[in-house]
Design goal:
The protein is an alpha+beta fold and 124 residues long. Helix content is 16%, strand content 45%. The longest helix is centred in the first third of the chain and has 20 residues.
């Protein structure tokens, strides 16, 4: 077999493996919130029992449309950077001093260890 042809086969096999391994999105994003891809902060809003609404503004979205990092607006002018944390079931977005645990449309917004608010997702 010609040396150049063997090198081509080796490179093609390696590239096929690399493409196949990269074609599946990261397991960390498998259970995150989905976005329609239209963007904007009004697309996903958490409406909570305390009477407030907390928009989630996507920063990074996976290939399949799952939000990986976002800004969670805790007040009209204050946003917290949150990141998807791998979970067995549901999703968790965590930031400095705040985290959001949820399953489907229901979520608990935690402001530290002692303040927790029940929320539901309102998709626009």
């Amino acid at each position: 077999m010609h040396a150049g042809f063997r090198k081509f086969i080796l490179i093609a096999a390696f590239m096929g493996f690399a493409i196949g391994a990269a074609s599946r999105p990261s397991a960390a994003a498998d259970l995150g919130l989905m976005t329609s891809g239209q963007g904007g902060c009004s697309e996903i809003v958490f409406t909570c029992e305390n009477g407030r609404q907390y928009p989630l503004c996507p920063i990074a979205v996976s290939v399949v449309g799952e939000i990986v990092t976002a800004s969670l607006f805790t007040s009209p002018r204050n946003a917290m950077h949150v990141r998807l944390v791998p979970m067995g079931v549901g999703y968790r977005y965590a930031g400095r001093g705040v985290w959001l645990d949820g399953f489907r449309e229901n979520a608990l917004l935690n402001f530290g260890k002692h303040t927790q608010v029940a929320c539901t997702i309102q998709h626009s």
